[in-house]
From TrEMBL:
Organism in which the protein naturally occurs: Rhizobium etli 8C-3
One family name in Pfam for this protein: DctM
Subunit text: The complex comprises the extracytoplasmic solute receptor protein and the two transmembrane proteins.
A GO molecular-function descriptor: transmembrane transporter activity
Domain TRAP C4-dicarboxylate transport system permease DctM subunit, residue spans: 13-434
Function description: Part of the tripartite ATP-independent periplasmic (TRAP) transport system.
Stated name of the protein: TRAP transporter large permease protein
Superkingdom as given in the UniProt entry: Bacteria
Keyword field contains Membrane: yes
Keywords recorded for this protein, A-Z: Cell inner membrane, Cell membrane, Membrane, Transmembrane, Transmembrane helix, Transport
Length: 523
């Protein structure tokens, strides 16, 4: 463990102590990094030349175009949180499924998935659905633990469904394309929604009393008016999803440009609902400023820490410890996910992404693990950071808008089954990597052994060399089977007279002159 010195483990321990003490994360990381940097310079374990790169790395953070997607998606989510779209979706979908046991729970999960695809923020989904659906679910006999659990879990789907902010941050930390991260997250997103819906279906069969159907006078008749109302809420959402995700997947826009399109679409939806006011825009801008500032400051602090940590051979220390885990890549992934699950009790997803991922990514790459698969897997795991105590932010959001009749104990206990389902998805992604890699763009497969290059000659005769390795052949080892032009047709030289055939051997016909006006043929 100490093959690379005592300082890397001491840095890691110092970071944990600072965070447990409650000091702000960004300043904890920066202070620990600079403090141990000074100690390393004094003891000869660290070169001050590393610190010369610190201003350049900070400038690279604040000038990173990819990180502009974070304020765009945050602003879009803040606008949609207040524009009335979620109310229309929940009201119509709740009445559509209200006749069956668990109908409101189905509606909350499906609307949570749609909101996740157009907002990308957990707070917007949990608060909006909690304000609208929780009083109705409790009024008509839903179990409080089930009602609070399904609302909190449906809000955390936003973590995995593109355009998730977590995927943007992970793509930046792993050095991969945001578009590929979004494509890789499609399969786990569908699986997560299916697992949640399957759980509600199972409970509705086994214990329908936990989630009774809505009375007929509340849900109304199933008719064209209700169906058109649901479609009126869905169609603008689908258009906005295409603006945000479709343009990325089709290569028409970068994630930053797609985020800007999403902001325009969100403001248009707010205007259609007659809620686009200056107070709404001001609140959205304030929320966006707070979140973006927090992300940038944590990223700057983590850069200070990681620069010193790597200069102390901390990355080699991490790789030395983790590469020896039994089980190969699968054992490494199981250990990493257990480690991150425990860290999520104390840290939020931004802190985990900026602190832990830069340490783990080189080890994953050395073990041959696809980093897109690795990033999506970590994103699926970090859903749990919003759901389990003591720092489950989805539970905090729900507690802030729930009435006093709802006990905090019910909120925490109701979250446990959904955390288990999220961990089931983690296991599925570990042992079934095609759930991520199947959706990635793959270039056309070309067998290089089937390619043959033909180059026209310069004169009337051609000198054809046999392929390399053939008996008596002098072909090119770089291009086997290459047909070279004759040396008799070089410019400025007279062609040599044709050789006379030997007695008893008939003359061989010469190749026709090559047409130099045509390009070489590749077969």
């Amino acid at each position: 463990m100490f093959d690379f010195g005592i300082i890397p483990p001491a840095m890691f321990l110092g970071m944990v102590i600072f965070m447990l003490y409650g000091f702000p994360v960004a300043f904890s990381l920066a202070s620990v990094g600079l403090f141990f940097g000074v100690i390393g310079i004094a003891t000869g374990h660290f070169s001050e030349a590393f610190l010369q790169a610190l201003p350049l790395r900070i400038f690279g953070i604040v000038s990173n175009d990819l990180l502009l997607a974070i304020p765009f998606f945050t602003f879009m989510g803040a606008i949609l949180e207040r524009c009335g779209l979620a109310e229309d979706l929940l009201e119509g979908t709740g009445k559509l499924f209200g006749a069956v046991p668990g109908g409101l729970a189905y509606a909350v999960i499906l609307v949570g998935a749609v909101l996740g695809a157009i907002t990308g923020t957990v707070a917007a989904s949990v608060i909006t659905m909690g304000v609208i659906s929780l009083p109705i679910m409790l009024r008509y006999g839903y179990n409080p633990r089930l009602a609070t659990g399904v609302i909190a879990a449906s809000g955390t789907i936003t973590q995995v469904i593109p355009p998730s902010l977590v995927l943007v941050v992970l793509a930046d930390q792993l050095g991969r394309s945001v578009g590929d991260m979004y494509l890789g997250a499609i399969g786990p997103s569908i699986l997560q929604v299916a697992i949640f819906l399957g759980f509600i279906l199972f409970l509705s069969i086994v214990r329908p009393g936990l989630m009774p159907p809505l009375p007929k006078d509340v849900r109304g008749e199933f008719n064209w008016a209700l169906l058109m109302k649901v479609l009126a809420g869905m169609v603008p959402s689908i258009i906005l999803i295409f603006l945000v995700l479709g343009t990325i997947f089709m290569g028409l826009a970068t994630p930053t440009e797609a985020g800007a399109l999403g902001v325009v679409g969100a403001m248009m939806l707010a205007a259609l609902h007659r809620r686009l006011t200056w107070p709404l825009v001001r609140e959205a801008m304030t929320s966006t400023m707070h979140i973006t500032s927090m992300v940038v400051m944590i990223l700057i602090g983590s850069t200070c820490f990681s620069l010193v940590f790597q200069g102390m051979d901390g990355s080699r220390w991490i790789e030395h410890m983790l590469s020896g885990i039994p089980g190969g890549p699968v054992g490494f992934l199981i250990f990493v996910n257990l480690f991150i699950f425990v860290l999520a009790f104390f840290l939020d997803f931004f802190e985990i992404a900026f602190i832990v991922i830069p340490m783990l990514a080189p080890v994953a790459s050395a073990l041959g693990i696809d980093l897109i698969w690795f990033g999506v897997l970590i994103c699926v795991n970090m859903q749990t950071s919003f759901m389990h105590p003591p720092f489950g932010f989805a539970l905090f959001y729900l507690r802030s808008i729930a009435s006093r009749d709802v006990k905090t104990r019910d909120i925490y206990m109701g979250a446990i089954p959904w955390v288990v389902m999220q961990l089931i998805l983690v296991a599925i992604v570990i042992f079934w990597p095609q759930s991520v890699t199947y959706w990635l763009n793959k270039g056309p497969a070309v067998d290089l052994n089937t390619i043959k290059i033909e180059i026209p000659g310069f004169g009337g005769n051609q000198l054809s060399l046999p392929p390399a390795g053939a008996p008596g052949g002098n072909g090119s080892p770089q291009i086997p089977g290459l047909t070279l032009p004759s040396l008799n047709g070089l410019p400025g030289q007279q062609p040599a007279p044709p050789a006379k055939p030997a007695p008893g051997n008939p003359a061989q016909p010469t190749a026709p002159p090559a047409d130099l006006s045509q390009p070489p043929q590749i077969k």
